[in-house]
Description:
The protein is of the alpha/beta class. It contains 10 helices and 15 strands. The protein is globular, with a radius of gyration of 21 Å.
Amino acid sequence: MQKIALITGVTGQDGAYLSEFLLKKNYIVHGIKRRSSLFNTDRIDHLYQDPHIANQNFVLHHGDMTDSTNLIRIIQEVQPDEIYNLAAMSHVHVSFEMPEYTANADGIGTLRLLEAIRILGMEKKVRIYQASTSELYGKVQEIPQTEKTPFYPRSPYAVAKMYAYWITVNYREAYGIYACNGILFNHESPIRGETFVTRKITRATSKIALGLQDKLYLGNLDAKRDWGHAKDYVRMMWMLLQHETPQDWVIATGKTTTVRDFVKMAFAEIGVELEFKGKGVDEKGYIKSSNHPNYKVEIGKEVVAVDPRYFRPTEVELLIGDASKAKEELGWVPQYDLQDLVKDMMKSDLKLMQKDRYLHEGGYDVLNYFE
Ligand code: NDP
Ligand code: GDR
């Protein structure tokens, strides 16, 4: 019998990689996507199957975490063995601008999903993965952070996710539902959303290499994150749902790096050594040397600057996770380190920006719909 998975947030970074992974494992994958006025399925278009053919393995449904009737109907129709709840307003900074929506989608949305299972009497049939986050740790209580480290959320996003974390634990204890929290530290990839810091950096570095952009503006360069590769992390989502008993798991690399050092690593991929001078809002990054045969950038040029608009009202300064439990009990071995991740992202963005440059040179970079 083929297993059936339902993924909320299927159009996101993790949803796309997880769909690929589960399809390779011979699952039938159903995904929930939001209606939007433009196509929003870029990341999963390569998995698309013509809805007119029989026996599809990849099926999309319109839906939203803020609509419980729709969640109940989809779950009833799909009868999943596993549900991966990845849907969320996932941008920490934006959550300060949209706190109520974030609470609704990320916090109450998780409750809606769990209640749907109860309403449908599927408590014993289905296993649920909840996309919890290292943002729960927020203000540093202890390092490295483990499953036992106390939470101290520092944004509306993290507070909403804290509700989702505990409601998942509560439904597991109260109703015996197989529900797990994966407390995942930051994970990135070539298909990471463009406004998260790693992707913002690899895109801008690629554009600077090709002469399409002059400068990269960032916020807090001192923030430290434990960055892994999304491919390693989605494998883990599946692995932890296969464990005999439902538990909560930290997934992390155990290494932490500043935003500043990530920028240096990205520039190193185009043969540039960066030098940072100044402090706080006045800190700037200059080209110290440049030695790539294909990418010529001017020595001494200022290419990185700080813009306070990217500062957060409350910041998470330091994240570093200890995934010993997952490594020991589930045998998780990540295949990528940070260097591999930066290489993978830079390779992909350089290719994308090269395409942009061809379009730009051909005069096709701005499509005027209203001409
Ligand atoms: P993305 O932002 O790339 O994807 C989020 C997905 O959720 C998108 O498919 C988005 O749809 C969808 N979505 C947003 N709001 C709603 C809603 N109201 N109803 C239905 N769908 C919605 O996130 P990631 O793939 O990076 O992360 C996946 C999950 O893991 C998220 O819950 C995130 O908070 C969590 N997480 C992520 C980490 C990371 O480092 N990536 C670390 C720890 C946790 P659309 O495409 O239409 O916007
Ligand atoms: P984060 O990721 O908040 O950790 O949440 P993000 O990449 O947005 O920020 C990481 C750190 O970089 C600093 N920073 C900047 N961030 C952005 N976005 N843009 C900038 O210009 C910039 N300059 C500096 C931030 O202040 C922060 O300290 C991600 C999301 O995927 C969440 O959904 C997930 O739960 C956590 O990771 C784990």
